[in-house]
Amino acid sequence: MLAVFGANVGLAGPVDIYGFGAASIGRGQGGVSVADGGMTVFRNPALLQSLEWAEASAGFGMYRASLAASPQVYWDTNQDGVLNAEDPPLSVTADSPDADGLSIAMARNVGDKIGLALNAFLPTNRLMRFGTTEPSLPTWVMYGNRTQRVDLSIGAGFELYKGISVGTAVEVTAMARYKISSTIGVGVGAAESEEELGDIIESVTVDVHQMSLDLVPRLVPIVGFHWDAGQLLKPLDGLHVGASWRADSGIPVDAEIDLQINGTIQDIGELNDMVVALVMPIEFSVFDHYIPERWSFGASYQHKEKSLVYFDLHHTRWSGMQVNVARITSSAIRSQIFDVNDDLVDDANAYRAFFKDTQSFHTGTEIHLPVIATQGNAGDIAPILRTGFALVPSPLVSQEVGTAFLDSDRMLFSFGAGIVHEDPTLLLPGPVQWDVFYTRHVLAAGVLQIADAGTMRPGAPVDGKPIPIGGSLWSAGAQLTVSF
């Protein structure tokens, strides 16, 4: 049952934020041990061996955020190089961008022991976005770019022995290499009076020689395990246990900027006309869309075909978190008339923030209501109700003066419903399923104390008050799954 939105610890990518599979999302965006047909590749590929039909699914979902408004901060808004009373305060937008998207899944069984599937999330606003964060401005560090990329995973599940299955998958990400080489020419002439000092620059020429952006695929491995206890021990019929592991990854962006500034000086007193070249090669790196290593464990109990309850625990290694801040890795300034020691080139974006590993808890239920008898080719209608809850702690522990990263613990409440019936066109031998869901996140309220709030420092709140933390998120969507 493919769908688009839910909640999970980490918010590492669109699937971690939104979830995958309307059934899973409606019952709290979990179910490491719950087989949901072809929509389990991201969650636990070992569950794919339970496929009874070939499946095709498509869904659409919406995601919206309403976060606590950030105060106005000091900033060089008039871009004159000086921070003073002439600079109007900077207003910072707190809400993360909308992230509506499409979900698709294709799956099929191979015999009665193997299942194969492809799951994909396609954002409708943009396929992918790279962007950096300014550490001194209020920023919800777990949001932003993370929702703005394609997420694709391909996997397979195989039953080794009675009720014991394993699975493996790869989540496809990318790494980027960006290079720009350019020359800026500045012509400087003489000023005959103080009133004409503004006219000393006679010409500016910009020549961009080369730009290139390479996106190189990266594969993130996922491994899963599933045990249907009832197949080995009849008294445990209905009990399922699952576990999965995903490696850490992300999208590193390595950029090279080769900037050359040529200054032409003429008619300056007794100086001979000359050309002064300033060469500034800069290399910097950004680690965007960080994906942490995650261990997931779950157990569920299904009472015949009437009800289901599950519990999941996710251990996510956020201690290695890399924020999408541009970091200078190499730089230099060279000229034929003076030298600058490389050690004097400072990285103004240097920051220190500390993240911890987290454990999130998810639980949910699913109830199959009495079948509704109908006339016609669609046959009887089987309605389903779902609900779920999750408790997701924030990994952000502390940060040093000069940064304003924001995050908070969150609780997730979810609701879902679906119906199953036969294909009224009689073209498909398997069932047709429609699902809808709604989720709401409640973010814990709090404040970020700014040590030098009120002082005229870039990023410091103008009113001298702490930065508020809190808000809510919601998502809603629908999907269709057909079996053949």
Short description, anyone?
The protein is an all-beta fold and 484 residues long.
Plain-language structure description:
By secondary structure, the chain is mostly beta strands. It has one domain (14-483): Porin. Strands 1-2-3-5-6-7-8-11-12-17-18-21-22-23 form a 14-stranded antiparallel β-barrel. 39% of the residues are buried. The protein has helices spanning 14-18, 22-26; strands at residues 55-67, 101-110, 114-123, 139-140, 151-161, 164-188, 201-228, 239-246, 249-265, 274-291, 294-303, 307-316, 327-331, 333-335, 339-340, 353-355, 358-368, 382-392, 396-399, 405-406, 410-422, 431-448, 467-483.
- Please tell me the overall pLDDT: 82
Determine the structural class based on helices, strands and strand pairing. Answer: mainly beta
Number of domains: 1
Strand content: over 45%
Summed up, the helix count is 2
Question: Which terms would index this structure?
Answer:
Porin, single chain, disordered N terminus, two-stranded parallel sheet, 23 strands, 2 helices, elongated, 484 residues, mainly beta
List the helices and strands and how they pair.
Layout: H1 14-18, H2 22-26, E1 55-67, E2 101-110, E3 114-123, E4 139-140, E5 151-161, E6 164-188, E7 201-228, E8 239-246, E9 249-265, E10 274-291, E11 294-303, E12 307-316, E13 327-331, E14 333-335, E15 339-340, E16 353-355, E17 358-368, E18 382-392, E19 396-399, E20 405-406, E21 410-422, E22 431-448, E23 467-483
Parallel strand pairs: 4-20, 6-9
Antiparallel strand pairs: 1-2, 1-23, 2-3, 3-5, 5-6, 6-7, 7-8, 8-11, 9-10, 10-13, 10-14, 11-12, 12-17, 14-15, 16-19, 17-18, 18-21, 21-22, 22-23
